[in-house]
Structure formats: C-alpha cells, structure tokens
Amino acid sequence: MKFKNLLVILTATIMLSACADWIFRIDIPQGNFLDEKDVKKLRIEMTKEQVVYVLGKPVLEDAFDHDTWYYLYQMKRGMKQRGEDFRKELTIKFVDDKITEVTGDFELSEEFSIPLDQ
After folding, report:
1. For the segment 54-64, what is each residue's pLDDT rounded down to a tens digit?
2. Cys-Cys link to 45, which of 3, 83, 113, 115 (CB 3.0-4.6 A)?
3. Which N-terminal stretch is annotated as signal sequence (predicted)?
C-alpha cells in the first residue's frame, strides 16, 4: 500500500513539473524605449525642447546637474524562449540648454556633429 501511494505521488510530481513551461509569464518593460532611427535624429547643439520632441521626456534628470539627462530602458523577459533580458542606456549632456555630448548603447548618425542650423 505504501509503495502504491509513493508511486502515485512520484507520478503526480513528474507530471506537474512537466507543466512548468506552460505557465505564461509576461515580459516587463521599464523606462523609455528608444528606437535607433530616433536616436540618429539627434544633432549637436539641439535644444532641450527639440530633444524632448524627438525622444520624449527622460526617465531621469540628474538632481545636482539639470543639464544631464538619462534615458534608460530595461526588458525583463518572463520566459527564456522570448530571449534574454537586456538594458539600454543613453546619456545626453547639455551646456546652455544645447546638446554637447551623447553617450550610451546607441550608434549616433554620421551627421551628429553637424548642427541643424547649417
């Protein structure tokens, strides 16, 4: 009798563990999703207003230096089949409300160093 109960419990455990991949888990995106083509629209000496128009509001502005903006995006995958977790960052620095430097995980366009006014 004990062997039969143990066999039933073992079989149920194996069957339930096989169903673990069937549970749907959602992806959790956080931050500003930036498209590569939007980042390529950035030019040196663009104003803060122009940057907000192109990329939207930053996730974070430096509390001590209002001339540094951070755009962060993180994707936490619910299931491994949909890919790996990833994080992208873009930092924009301004002087006199105009872009002076852009760093991060995105490729800038070749025309970045040419201001829009020219």
Report:
1. 999 998 887 88
2. 115
3. 1-20
Q: What is the CATH number of the domain that holds 59?
A: 3.30.1450
Does residue 83 form part of some domain? yes
Handedness of CA 44, 47, 48, 49 (dihedral sign): negative
Instruction: DSSP letter for 19, please.
Output: G
List strand residue ranges (DSSP E) for the chain, in order: 28-31, 60-61, 68-76, 86-95, 98-104
- Global pTM reads 0.73
The reply to whether 38 falls in a domain is yes
Give CA–CA dist 81/77, Å, rounded: 9
Domain coverage including residue 35: 28-104
- Is residue 7 in a domain? no
